Amino acid sequence: MQVTQLWRYPVKSMIGGLVDAVDLDDLGIVDDRTWAVRDLERGGIRGAKKIGSLMQLAARDVDGDDVAITLPDGSEVRTSDADVDERVSAALDHHVRLERLRPADDVEHYRRGAPDTDDAMAELGSIFGREEGEPLPDFSVFPPEIVEFESPPGTYYDAFPLMVMTESALAALASALPDSKIDVRRFRPSIVIGSNPESGLPQGHPESGWPGRSARIGSAVVEFAAQCPRCGMVTREIDDSLPTDRAVLRHIVRDLDQNVGVYATVTTPGTIRVGDPLEFL
After folding, report:
1. Distance separating alpha carbons of residues 85 and 8, to the nearest angstrom
2. Architecture of domain 2-34+110-280
3. Where are the domains of the chain?
């Protein structure tokens, strides 16, 4: 198995970009998710679980700490521009402010905003895109701090710094959903791993069996923490070629025990490049 894609996402929940190499520190990919939007209507840092149209915007690193954001109409604005909040808010049809990642001890920055409803089960069902009668994820796999905070303080990750999935998982989804367009952008992996079908390695969703194992990838070592429970983000419209598609999540919940891909943490910082092998330890 080897790395076939590496993704970096400069702004939480916006589409990111492919890169040839990434540096990993203790918190994850360097320069990944260094910006996010604060919901000025409901409070709190928010992602596409709440503001789905965030996935219609794309972000890329430019000079220094500056990030260029491509809006749905094809125009571009930078985080350093005076009108960035106004233009992003107009694109989202929602009043937001771009905010840079802050230190972990600034806990108020990361505290969750008010829920949309006082019904906790309805709130969770909405966040995870569940229909009536569908189960919610096993929340014991998540870090306990995300009950109180939108992300682990000091990061803009939902739960874990890395999400790894395989090319065979994407192929299995495409086979199971012939009427859907399966695109890697729906699933927001950090690292995509490929293997030759003739190699004899498991196909389908082999990463579902990786939690609890560690692997060396490039000069870094990662530990696979838990399978990745999926939410409504995998159904969101990205552009005209990838419209809203709820069938994707229905299949994942019904047939894949709610999971696609696997979360990972960084055990040993290092550099990962496309083409590097994944070697279990």
Report:
1. 22
2. Beta Barrel (2.40)
3. 2-34+110-280
